[in-house]
Amino acid sequence: MSASEVFTVDMEESPPYTLAGRSTVNKNCIPKDAVERASSFVSEWTPFGLVASYFVFSTCLYMYCSDSLIAIFWFIYMCTNFYIAGVTVLEAFMSITPCREARKIVTLAEEKGWLFPTPHHQLLILDVLIVAYLPNEKDIIIDRALYALEQIDYPRDKIRVNILYNTPKRIEPLETELHQLKEQYLHARIIKVPNSTSKADNLNYFLTLDTGSDLIAIYDCDHYPHPNGPRWAVERFIADQEIDIVQGRCVVFNSEDTFLTSMIAVEFDKIYAVSHPGRATMWGFGLFCGSNGYWRTSLLRELEMDGDMLTEDIDSALRAFSRGCKTVHDLNVTSYELAPTTFPAFWKQRLRWAQGWTQASIKHIKMVYDKPQDPLHPNYNRGFTARFGVLSLLLIREASYYLVTQYTCLVLSFMIVKFPTSGEELGKLIYFQYPVSQWLFIISVICLIATLWITNQVKSEFVTRRMVILFSIQYPFYLVLSATIGLYGHARQIVKYSSWNPTARK
């Protein structure tokens, strides 16, 4: 999934203006930095207060509701959970065909000695962009740059590996080592982006340069592209001239570092190998996800990245779709990335994604009802299936945060008012409070098992069956955590929270 990296820089405090060596600051006035710290504190903790109040108020409200009203709420939440589970399993089944096709293509290529259809001299010119923020990614940038320059299997006269980086202060000898790569590798281009504070700034700066490329590939700094990944992507563009974007599969390779990384690795397999290709098949549109994505250069230059969006990748993907551009998910275009190893890093990353998705949903929900107007695609007409897919992706997904957490608050109120004394009573309390719940719950569980079974069939080499089983066991808690993060993102958007720190990479 990637998200916009908006980076904050600590600036030296400026001394107060002086006259003849005396400070002119009124000692009775509140220092400016104290006001800023107080404002930052309020901005940081207000979302927490909103979310905590939401849970407390909802739980207390259910404690005082009548039994008939509780029955109505229970039925609504079970039905909506059933809908979400049903859509998820449908997307999973829809992903089976793309997975089979991807395996078939690999088998054919292997039988031909990895001889690709297009001769080298007919390949498209490719710009590979590796976007980095040096103070945060200084420990990995040289390694990733050397890997891309040496391991990507693509004709050197048809590819340029561009290292785009920004940094608030010079870092030596690292920057000198980076720029020396141009002397050793003729297809390397090192660009220090001036006045940049985000990934969007880096990309937009590059888009002002005339590099003569046909395609642009975007990678975050922590990625290892598969050596054949770029070739697979370019072959898709050549085979189908209507394709505008190819989004590859992202795989977590540090799955064994911690329990958290193992769960994220399974989650990424579920998202990139099941949900994304399944959704594209089911609803008729795909999405650029921030990294390991390939664009036609002309389209990306025209759209650019919106630096005001926290997930500028999702925003650009939805803007492209709104114009009728075609995005496909290719499971053979693989890239390997790092997952956060600590919960605080995971929490910061997912809050950024949650708020970014909220921004994108508010901005693009109009696609459900508006009429496409694009001179490049005058005959494009967004059909009912695609419109309902947008509704499901942007509105229903955002609303599901409230449905899941309200169900959780309802169960909490039951446990407070009539605490179960046995495991049987607990099970009946949570799932079978009303007769209809039995069928809705059983069908939802079957849908979940089917989805995770399909995920197990397409899991990456870094994910074990044991990891999938553990992920399945803790999946209900994962849903509650994801919904809570979604609510937190809404709260941050309400208070216009914008202070973000990049995820540490080592």
TrEMBL record:
GO terms for cellular component: membrane. Keywords: Glycosyltransferase, Membrane, Transferase, Transmembrane, Transmembrane helix. It is a multi-pass membrane protein. Residues 216-451 form the Glycosyltransferase 2-like domain. It is found in: Membrane. PROSITE patterns: ASP_PROTEASE (PS00141). It comes from the Eukaryota. Signal peptide: none annotated. The chain crosses the membrane at residues 45-64, 70-94, 437-455, 467-491. Pfam families: Glyco_trans_2_3. GO terms for molecular function: aspartic-type endopeptidase activity; glycosyltransferase activity. PANTHER family: CELLULOSE SYNTHASE CATALYTIC SUBUNIT A [UDP-FORMING]. This is Glycosyltransferase family 2 protein. It comes from Zopfia rhizophila CBS 207.26. The lineage of its organism: Eukaryota, Fungi, Dikarya, Ascomycota, Pezizomycotina.
